[in-house]
User: Which sequence fits this backbone?
């Protein structure tokens, strides 16, 4: 009898890890077509939500049977304070009673926004509970890499379709529509398993590249294949280039540069020592080093030339504008700038509690800057009576300011700073895996910080997953020190 009970508990634990692994494997699919009850306008549809639901069910069953302890992390307090204020701001915003917009009512938008927030939080909480030690970290990263390999394979298939005649674009589009809300991008930009190229680039910058970059920088490997992480990193950077996403590229470069600045001093010394020693070991060694430097500079030059083929990137260097608004229009960011300006105007009108989560769209059109009404075609299309789209700020920070006010924004910022503190606290362990996790956590934190300037969704796993992993590892490290 005891043997059968033990077996049942063991199988339940294995199922828990299986569903967690499946959730990580499914991360690349951001707009899964087959979600019941969602309209065509709901674009953020993470496939990972399905296995995540089963994961929580199993975790709660085990917690009820006292077979597993769902521990408390300090970041939960900061996050909980933010969520509670979001609920309060929703009540306060209802007193403003905005006029329905294109079939959308205040109550409907707030409920929808709260659901998206709780979906995002569920990714964070599950990552915290499923990552307690080095073994859990290795398990998580292996499944994340498995999802990355699927994403790279589908991105490669798209590249073959776009740049060779081996596959018909219409055929591959039908394949993609079998699981995604989006057909292939007509401008031949790689979108992978995500909805659009910018989403793919953001996904790589905030989830995949942090672990790959940390593995190379700290020389910590998840598997015995020493070449795996460098190879995946090189392929990932190529895919990010092929997305032609300006925000994704800038986010990746900025996060990588700052992370290397903070954690790469030992690597810099080693590289410099290796280079200097080349002068002392003969001409052959010197030529090898000079050749490798030439390859690096050649790769950077090639990347710039590759991006420079598109006016979309060349326009960034065109400073012939009278003011900032003209420059935004010239670089095809006029609509994004107009929505952000309108969101900030909404914040100024309701600075303390905001207008309620999800409700900023009711105020955007009336707060659009004058310059956008005549110079931005997208704004003209949005204002057409035939258009049924609900506007959004396109910037998470401005969205939070507009919808939750200064108080909600500060609470969200406090949560983010707590996550950063947890990531840095892992360095105290002075172990290889902890330094790897800290490096990946800081890279992801920096990337998320930049990424949130270009997106405003609280549902996407990108801004929650790696944060949850490092918080879980840090929380358990603190518990062990107390014991």
Assistant:
């Amino acid at each position: 009898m005891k043997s059968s009970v033990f077996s049942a508990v063991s199988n339940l634990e294995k199922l828990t890890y299986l569903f967690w692994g499946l959730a990580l494997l499914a991360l690349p699919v951001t707009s899964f077509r087959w979600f019941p009850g969602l309209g065509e306008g709901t674009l953020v549809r993470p496939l990972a939500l399905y296995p995540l639901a089963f994961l929580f069910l199993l975790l709660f069953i085990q917690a009820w049977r006292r077979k597993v302890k769902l521990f408390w992390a300090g970041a939960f307090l900061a996050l909980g304070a933010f969520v509670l204020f979001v609920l309060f701001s929703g009540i306060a915003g209802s007193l403003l009673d905005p006029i329905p917009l294109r079939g959308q009512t205040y109550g409907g938008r707030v409920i929808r926004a709260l659901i998206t927030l709780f979906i995002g939080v569920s990714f964070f909480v599950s990552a915290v509970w499923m990552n307690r030690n080095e073994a859990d970290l290795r398990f998580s990263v292996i499944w994340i890499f498995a999802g990355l390999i699927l994403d790279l394979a589908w991105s490669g298939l798209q590249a073959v379709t776009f740049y060779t005649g081996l596959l018909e674009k219409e055929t591959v589009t039908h394949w993609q529509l079998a699981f995604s809300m989006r057909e292939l991008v007509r401008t031949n930009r790689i979108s992978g398993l995500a909805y659009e190229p910018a989403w793919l680039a953001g996904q790589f910058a905030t989830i995949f590249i942090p672990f790959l970059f940390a593995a190379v920088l700290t020389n910590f490997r998840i598997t015995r294949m020493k070449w795996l992480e460098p190879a995946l990193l090189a392929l990932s950077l190529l895919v990010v280039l092929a997305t032609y996403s300006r925000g994704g590229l800038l986010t990746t470069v900025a996060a990588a540069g700052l992370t290397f600045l903070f954690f790469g001093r030992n690597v810099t010394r080693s590289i410099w020592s290796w280079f200097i020693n080349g002068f002392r070991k003969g001409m052959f060694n010197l030529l090898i080093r000079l050749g490798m430097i030439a390859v690096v500079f050649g790769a950077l030059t090639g990347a710039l030339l590759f991006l420079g083929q598109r006016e979309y990137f060349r326009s960034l260097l065109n400073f012939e504008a009278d003011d900032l608004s003209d420059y935004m229009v010239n670089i095809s960011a006029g609509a994004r700038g107009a929505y952000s300006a309108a969101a900030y105007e909404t914040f100024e009108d309701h600075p303390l509690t905001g207008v309620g989560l999800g409700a900023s769209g009711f105020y955007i059109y009336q707060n659009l800057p004058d310059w956008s009404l005549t110079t931005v075609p997208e704004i003209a299309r949005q204002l057409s009576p035939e258009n049924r789209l609900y506007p959004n700020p396109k910037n998470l920070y401005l969205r939070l300011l507009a919808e939750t006010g200064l108080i909600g924004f500060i609470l969200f910022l406090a949560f983010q700073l707590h996550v950063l503190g947890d990531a840095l606290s892992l360095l105290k362990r002075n172990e290889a895996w902890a330094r790897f996790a800290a490096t990946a956590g800081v890279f992801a934190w920096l990337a998320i910080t930049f990424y949130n300037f270009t997106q405003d969704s609280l549902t996407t796993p990108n801004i929650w997953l790696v944060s949850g992993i490092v918080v879980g590892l840090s929380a358990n490290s603190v518990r062990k020190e107390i014991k």
Remarks:
- The chain has one domain: 2-277+310-317+394-482.
- The chain has a mean pLDDT of 86.
- The first helix runs from residue 2 to 25.
- The two ends are 34 Å apart (CA to CA).
